[in-house]
Structures are given as structure tokens and as C-alpha cells.
Amino acid sequence: MPLTKRIIPCIDVDIDENGEAAVYTGVNFEELAYTGDPVEMARAYNRAGADEFVFLDITASAEGRETMLDTVRAVADEVFIPLTVGGGIRTRSDIKETLRAGADKVSINTGALENPALVEAGARAFGNQCIVISVDARRRYDEAGEHYVTVDGESCWFECTVKGGREGTGVDVVSWVTEAEERGAGELFVNSIDADGTKEGYDVPLMGAVADAVSTPVIASSGCGGPEDIYEVFTETDVDAALAASIFHFEEYSIEETKRYLDERGIPVRL
């Protein structure tokens, strides 16, 4: 029997002008617009049938500050499904404090790229299942990469970026996820800078390249415009879960409606 595919809503959280935590939605990691209150949204998604829930503090790494743990605690009180928290996690202590605040998993991007040994330390101390390596990938059409795919007749590779997609690293995504898996990552959370917020579908070549390179579960993120895009990424690649934000935030589709669509087309989901 095939494994059940997961549908995961995500909130991008930042500090508003009043110093309060708020959810924002943007395009290509920019043009952020206020979307709602993180605790209220967590409560709604828990009731809506989400399989898991992701909380990303989207400016913690760029601003060099810690994750907003008080808000994480409030969100954790509202969800009774697996909760992943990311943003600003750089040390073993950060992992510990985030898990103590109520997270079931931590999502690490910049901290792991800067210190790959953090992946091993976290997996050894807290278990592989707690360590999610997040990748903010962008396409590059040059000869600086290691692993190439053909997209619309052109050869490209995927570069890891940091600080919310603001800075390139020169690190090849496929090489990095392979290393992260070897170091003990329990899951890979793959974001596309190019597709983010466009609602034009997931970056299928990116997701396929990552899923083909590893055996670790892969979460596809960025670009979802509707259930048909989730169906595409599930049928065209071997990803294990699909993450979406704005289509759920703005009630264009419900999680139940999305799962019914997938179930009717033979995708195994939890109804």
C-alpha cells in the first residue's frame, strides 16, 4: 500500500510595526503583505484537517535574532498535529529551546549551511525525526554548479540561498541535500525562490532533482496555485508532502477540498 501523502499549511511570521507577531504572504520572498494572526491561523488549520503545520520566522536569520518562542508556545497550544518551527536556529541550544517551546521538529537552513556539524549534533541529541533541513533554492544558468537539469531546453542548476533567499552561497542544492541526509537529517523542506508566491505551480524540476537524490522524505514548497499543482508534484516527482500557504490563507481552497480532489485521482491522503 502506498504511503499517505501529506498536505501541510505554512505560516510565514514576522514582527509587525507594533512589535507583535503577524503572518505575512509575499512573492519571491518579497513584497510581504499582512495576512493574519499566527495563533488564530494555527487554531483554524488544526481544525481544518491539516496533516502537519509549519511555522517559519522569516526574518530571524536575516536579522540575527532568535526565533519568537513565546509565539511558538502559543501556536503549539492550538495544534495537535506535528508542528515544525524554523527561523534563526543556529545552535544545539536553539534546537533544544524550540522543541521545549512545543515544536515537534525544527527546520534549519542558514545555521546548517554555515555549520553542517549542527545537523549531526541535533540528530544525535534529539533524534533524526526532529531535524528538518530547509533549502531555499534558486535556478542558475551558468557553469558554477555540480548537478544540472534541463528546463525548457536550457541547462540549469539549483543554488542554496540563505537569509530568506537574500544571499546566494554557491552551494549546489543536490550536493547539499545528499550531505544533509548523510549527516542525519530526518526530512528535507525544499522551497523555490523562483516559484514562491507565483501560484504557477511547484518547481517540478527542482523537486524531482532533490527527491531522486535522497531517500529522506521531501516536502515540496512554493508556487502552489491549487489542488492541480499538488497533484502534479505528487505524480511527477517522488516528494512525500506538499506545502501551501496563500491558497489556504485566503480560502481559495480548503484542505478538505484539496484532499478530496487528490483522493478522487488516486493520490493516497488522510481524509
Summarize this, please?
By secondary structure, this protein is of the alpha/beta class.
Main beta sheet:
8 strands, parallel, barrel
Instruction: Give the beta-strand count.
Output: 13
Helix share, percent: 25-40%
The CATH topology turns out to be: TIM Barrel
Mean pLDDT, all residues = 92
With helices defined by DSSP (H or I, 4 residues minimum), what is the helix count? 11
Radius of gyration: 17 Å
Distance between the termini: 16 Å
Characterize the structure shown:
47% of the residues are buried. The protein has one domain: Aldolase class I (TIM Barrel). The model has no long low-confidence stretch (mean pLDDT 92). The protein has 271 residues and is an alpha/beta fold. It contains 11 helices and 13 strands. It has an 8-stranded parallel barrel with strand order 1-4-5-6-7-11-12-13, surrounded by 6 helices. Helix 1 packs parallel to helix 3 and helix 9 crosses helix 11.
Question: What is this structure's SSE topology?
Answer:
Blueprint: E1 6-15, E2 21-27, E3 30-36, H1 38-48, E4 53-57, H2 60-63, H3 69-76, E5 83-86, H4 92-100, E6 105-108, H5 110-114, H6 117-126, E7 131-140, E8 149-151, E9 154-162, E10 167-172, H7 173-183, E11 187-192, H8 204-213, E12 218-220, H9 227-236, E13 241-244, H10 246-249, H11 255-264
Parallel strand pairs: 1-4, 1-13, 4-5, 5-6, 6-7, 7-11, 11-12, 12-13
Antiparallel strand pairs: 1-2, 2-3, 7-9, 8-9, 9-10
